[in-house]
Amino acid sequence: MSDFFDLMIVPFTACLVLTGIHSYVGFHVLERGVIFVDLALAQIAALGATVGFLLGYDLHSNGSYFISLGFTLGGALVFSLTRTRREAIPQEAFIGISYAVAAAAAVLILSRAADGGEELKGLLVGHLLFVSWHEVFYIFGMYSLVGIFHFIFRKRFFLISCSPHDAFESGVSIRLWDFLFYASFGLVVTSSVELAGVLLVFSFLIAPAVCGKLLAQGTKSRLAIGWGVGFGASIIGISLSYFFDLPTGATIVCVFGALVLVSILFPPCFCVRET
Fold it and tell me: Which of 161, 169, 221, 266 could connect to 216 by a Cys-Cys bridge, CB 3.0–4.6 Å?
């Protein structure tokens, strides 16, 4: 058991940090109906990393990170400009196209590298099992700043996510606040993808939020359940990966899927309601 603690305490702590910010952002993503925005931004961040790799930067270097962040902020700008009051085309369509193009472009770029296949695999699964305390403290500090920013402007963000019509009527600059939302989200995603990979980042964002909406009514209850689901999936997934010698990231993703299924089958009469 001591070996389990020594080996898994750092990845587990990293998962808790990921749960804290992604479950919150996932609530907004679900309310906005842009489910694949995380996957799209994560893939755009991965595309930026592949461009940096082609330019000679290591995938985990500062140069690669800043190129990746630049691509992600560019994606945030595009997504903020595609949101209109009366949408002739759903914003999700633009997000889906962005994901497909970014994924294809990453494959094309890495096809020019001799070890491109391994690098692409690294972008998909990350290096969660080998994360260091330095990385954990770094992302904790960054995510805390993003969390403080969202807390200060929480009324504006919740208004736009939950009541977009009222936000338009009140004269709020939707595109500005959408850009700030996607930019702060993109800052989180850029670091998360490098750490945990595209698939696990998407799961941390959507699965807890879905479980929260299935099992609770009211923002606070949904957020609490989302954080609980993320915490539980991290414990179960990391434990299973250690004792059965399974890939950590993929195991946690499958556990998230199982928890969503349990939430679907859960009797509606037991759903949490806020008074």
Answer: 221
